[in-house]
Amino acid sequence: MGTMNKTFMSFAIAALLFEIAIGETYIVGSPNGSWDENTNLQTWIKSQRFIVGDNINFQYGPPHSVVEVTEADYNSCEASNPVQVYTNGNTVIRLSSPGKRYFICGVTSHCAGGMKIEVETVPAAPITSSTPPASPLTPPAPASFANPMTPPSPAPPVFSSQPPTAAPPQPSPTAAPAILPPAPSAAPSISPDLSNAMVPSTNEPPIIEPPEFASDLLSPSSPPQPPLSSANKEHFHHLILPMGLGFGLAMILGF
């Protein structure tokens, strides 16, 4: 963008210099008159606008001339102290600087008759670019860091006026059949006689009668003993009865 602006300005300046070098050429008194007494030169000069670089062309014949003078000599039509005198009949004067310049005819009576002009030159108009000036580049704004995400606040619980609906019962899983341990084998049955003998009665203590003969307590292989007398039998009964009771109690307590 900056290079294009510089290029455009360069072309504009070159065009201005070319225009200044060439400029416009204005024929005095044209289009219907010239530098003479019959043309209303004051009306013509007021309708013109001259800028730096323009040219004015005086076309005339004898006895006329073109004399450049100061402002004071212009007002008094005095040609005796000229700035420049032209007499070739086709005078082109370049307006190379802004300001006022004064021209009169060298014949005093002609100047007094109106053959004089005051030429005002203005500076060339400043060059205006059709494109707006490039605005300075604005640095990009720093990237804003995103704020950490705020977790959404939990929604307030909504209380319903209706009682909660009971959930349908869930089917219970099928219970696996219980594996029962094998039934213990029945204990060997005890004969009624033995059980009755082993279990004492709760009402009376068991009475165990001693054997009548001592041979019942001896092993079968023992030789037979001679029979006892009545006195010995009575003594034997008194001795064996306590022993039998003790043996029976020991057996009951053992079971």
Query: What is the CATH level 1 assignment of the domain at 2-122?
Result: Mainly Beta
Strands in their spatial order, largest beta sheet? 2-8-7-4-5
**Total number of helical segments?**
6
Give the oligomeric state: single chain
Number of strands: 8
User: Order of helices and strands, N to C?
Assistant: HEHEEEHEEEHEHH
3D shape? rod-shaped
How would you name the CATH homologous superfamily of the domain at 2-122? Cupredoxins -  blue copper proteins
SSE-based structural type: alpha/beta
Strand coverage percent: 5-15%
In the predicted model, the low-confidence regions spanning at least 5 consecutive residues are 185-202, 213-220
Could you characterize the architecture of this molecule?
Residues 133-142, 165-185 have a biased composition (Pro residues). Residues 1-23 form the signal peptide. Keywords: Glycoprotein, Metal-binding, Signal. It comes from Stephania japonica. This is Phytocyanin domain-containing protein. Helix content is 28%, strand content 14%. With 255 residues, the chain is α/β, with parallel strands linked by helices. Among the domains are: 2-122, Sandwich (Immunoglobulin-like), CATH 2.60.40.420; 227-255. Strands 2-8-7-4-5 form a five-stranded mixed β-sheet. The radius of gyration is 81 Å and the shape is rod-shaped. The two termini are 126 Å apart.
